[in-house]
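User: Here's a chain of 346 residues. Predict its fold as tokens.
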Amino acid sequence: MERKQNFLRYYTDHYCQHEIVTSDISSHIVDEHLDHVFDACIKPTFPIETLVLSTRQSRTLGPEHDDLSFKQEWKQTEKGYNTVDVLYWIVDTTTTEDLEKILPKLIAPILRIVDDYDVTYKNHGVILLHGIVSKLDPMVITKFGLENVFIDALFKCLHYMTDTRDLALLTSAYSCLIDLIDKTKIVKTKERLLLFEKILTDGVVPGLRYAGDKSTFLLVLLPVIDRLAKELETLLVRYLKVVVLGTCNGLKSIKTEVNLVALEALKHVIEKTWLRIPLYGATILQALATLWMNNCKKQENSDSQEICHRTKIIYRLLYSICQGQLEIDAQALLELDKTTFGDLIE
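Assistant: Prediction complete.
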């Protein structure tokens, strides 16, 4: 907020000749000077070669090569703000109608930010894209095929899974990508299903394989699995093994928040792929038993009580689907510790 206020003060001091009430500065600049804001405060900070390149391809070069070796003026904050702050102000402040008018000018700079080598700035770019997607009518986004340009840029962000700094970017990218596809692609069409499947193959599956044992990454990936199960339904069967292992890792986590998200995702995975679930019944039961054992004796903890309640529901669903195939495993748990597992199984 402070950085946006710094921009508004600087702009009125240097460019605006009108007498305006302090509380109306932001709306006045939108109404009277929006095009000039772009021409004076945004466009000069992006080399034209960079804007052209950002619409053609994504690069993974380091800072010494970024912006074709030009100085990244759009990151500079000598005036108490930078160009990203100005873009945030435009996306957050303008009406849908004003945003639609200036959209052609905004696309290249925002895609350039999404394409930056710095994960923090990439995340800013994705958040800006999400703001545009949320505000505009789907017909405006699809008018010139912009949704496909945005989708391509967002898919490139799903590959960042090596550092905790990547978590914010992954969270923003998945959220924006799912909302964009949901808003611009017709339900049950082949194009929509293929894009949701690509989220699974290009993002979730590699994410579970390389970071599926880390609770922080599971908190990002499990809600995506939950949504994809609802979208893909039986198509999820192709990737059921890795999805089941990922959700089971979430059940075994020591973090309550991860457990709850994993239970929700697992419930929908089982419901949508129930014909193949018996193949993984024993694996799922083992994870449910671990979760139950970690929580059943914490009666004073409301989260643990909720976990136990939902674990029992999923166990009964799993047991009914597996049609007797879990009898031996369930009996083994009772023989191991009837006091602990009796309330779950009997």
